[in-house]
Amino acid sequence: MAIATLKPTTPVKKTIISPIAIIGMLFFIFGFVTWMNSVLIPYLKIACELNNVESYLVASCFYISFLVMGIPSAAVLEKFGFKNGMAVGLLVVAVGALIFIPAALTRTYGLFLTGLFIQGTGITILQTASNPYITILGPPEGAARRISIMGICNKCAGAIAPIALGVVALKNIDAIKIKINSLTGAAKAAELDALATRVILPYIIIVVVLVILAVLIYFSSLPEIDTEHEDETVALANTNKTSIVQFPHLMLGVVALFLYVGAEVIAGDTIISYGASQHIALSTAKFFTTCTLISMIAGYVVGVICIPTYFTQQKALVASAILGAVLTVLALLTTGYTSVFCIALLGLANSLMWPALWPLALAGLGRFTKIGSSLLIMGIAGGAVIPLLYGGIIDRHFTAQFAYVILIPIYLFILYYSTLGYKVGKSAA
Which segments constitute the Major facilitator superfamily (MFS) profile domain (predicted)? Predict the structure, then answer.
């Protein structure tokens, strides 16, 4: 399953440990930034007095940037290369985090959303560079294993982030929520203003860390790679290919990734609010996203150990889709902590989807790898659309539990891609 040939354009050390460690740091950073959204949703819902759909705009504004900026991010990489493009992406994320300061001081929801969109833009650049980089950096059959290692870095950060921000932003939140509901006028506004400023210090720290890491990346020994070079087999198969749309297995992969990211965001970002809807205190529910991320980490560990030694990345995707559908049905049929636990376990089902989808979708693209990667990154916009649909179902007087029915067709499509879709068009190549 040829993807592209690693062709360094800068001197490379004999070991790839250093590049993998650097990319691992990047996955940790954008995992940390991304999964703070799970706390921002209930936090801003209270601080900015939002309904369900409005609160899920946190996820939508963040993830829609992947759709809007997916193709421009490829242009950034063309101009700056993979390494310097990563440094640029980190600086863009830092700008978005910096906007949270005036947003908090003025308690302006629009500014929060602007900051989230800019953060998402920076992470789009990082994702566009780092995912194909780690896919290409070694044998194709082990790509899912390498991406699983990156996933562990990403989800460890994701497990830490909700707790780190939650300790600050959601401290004594149940009592504060009751207090706010009892106040009116200026007193209520003052209490909400004080709540909004809680995020200032955490985001100042994030800005400093991002800038430092951008400088380290810029001066690092991370090698550049040439995705324009194709081995003989890929070059022969792509002789008559003039457009990325001539790779239907990639196009279906983009759809699958769009749906998968939506499912992953729902499992991670809605579980706190869902726990509250099941009459579990927010002081307890704030840890539920971490439970989802821990189950994802467990899945990534399985991927590192078992792929490709015991099963292929394609078989892992089949099993993940089936498990996701089964857990969703169980979450719909149970209540309380049992139902919440099923949603948390969706992290396990989702964990190997990203590592498996990338190599399956990029297989055989050769010189089309960069644009293919950009389209896959645009598929991350599923995290903007699908959680919003979930919130819309709730606001139409359905329960938060019933709204999870949206996940069933998602997992069924991923099952189709994992069994048939990834092969479409390849026989004609």
Answer: 19-426
